[in-house]
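Tip: read the tokens left to right.
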């Protein structure tokens, strides 16, 4: 519909900023006569569901309302640039063949990987791009090569699926950032091997292009264990980035918030890596 309003309970870096996108708003008097055809409430986080369903009742007096999004474990459709993510962001596939205990993606997508039509964008947020077919990956890389900005791979690339040929392709794209993931002990050896491939392809540790999400704060984790994982990621060639575990209700151990702050800010993380892990 030409006059569709989108409501987002929480602003993120990816949230659209056009006039028909609003953050955690309910109707004002002006909205009743604004000619709004439909209202979509897009919910990314499960802890925002109660607010979203309350807000939907408020907006029903203005126009028909649809509530959905990743928080509802609904399989996503084809990606429409600028609709629910800011222009520049792109999703070229949905789902992941893995069954990680902390991840909602397999449940949402039925444990399957679906390749989508490739649209333009430069911030790639696929669940597991490297699990796609080589033809699809080549199409995505060709799309990125014609973009006006250096690509960013923020979805988290799976180290175990990287090949020397892919590493060389990535180097040719001159990316701003490549995020990998170190979530479980089994991720370490593939991460070390991926670091070798990327360095051999011409990436350098000093550029800070190579980055790694490191999951922290889950049951049984400790500050010492988490810091050790930061060091392992760094020595593998990646700048670590702490990802604080949350349960379905959004709850987390608050004693971990300060630790995360020391490993989620790029400048602080860089200083900590030099301090604790040296060169």
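Filled-in amino acids:
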């Amino acid at each position: 519909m030409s006059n569709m309003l989108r409501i987002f309970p929480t602003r993120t870096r990816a949230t659209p900023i056009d006039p028909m996108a609003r953050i955690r708003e309910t109707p004002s008097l002006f909205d009743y006569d604004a000619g709004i055809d439909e209202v979509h409430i897009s919910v990314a986080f499960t802890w925002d569901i109660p607010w979203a369903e309350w807000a939907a009742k408020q907006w029903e007096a203005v126009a028909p309302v649809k509530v959905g999004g990743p928080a509802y474990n609904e399989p996503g459709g084809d990606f429409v640039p600028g609709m629910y993510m800011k222009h520049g962001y792109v999703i070229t596939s949905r789902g992941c063949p893995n069954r990680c205990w902390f991840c909602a993606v397999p449940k949402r997508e039925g444990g399957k990987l679906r390749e989508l039509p490739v649209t333009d964008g430069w911030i790639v947020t696929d669940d597991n791009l490297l699990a796609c077919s080589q033809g699809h990956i080549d199409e995505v890389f060709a799309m990125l090569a014609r973009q006006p900005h250096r690509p960013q791979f923020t979805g988290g690339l799976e180290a175990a699926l990287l090949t020397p040929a892919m590493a060389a392709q990535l180097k040719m794209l001159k990316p701003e950032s490549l995020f990998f993931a170190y979530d479980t002990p089994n991720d370490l050896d593939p991460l070390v091997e991926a670091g070798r491939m990327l360095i051999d392809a011409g990436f350098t540790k000093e550029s800070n292009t190579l980055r790694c999400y490191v999951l922290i704060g889950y049951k049984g984790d400790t500050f010492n264990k988490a810091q050790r994982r930061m060091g392992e990621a760094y020595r593998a060639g990646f700048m670590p980035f702490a990802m604080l575990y949350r349960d379905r209700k959004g709850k987390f151990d608050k004693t971990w918030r300060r630790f995360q702050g020391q490993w989620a800010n790029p400048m602080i993380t860089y200083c900590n890596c030099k301090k604790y892990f040296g060169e």
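The chain has eight helices and twelve strands. Residues 4-70 form one domain.
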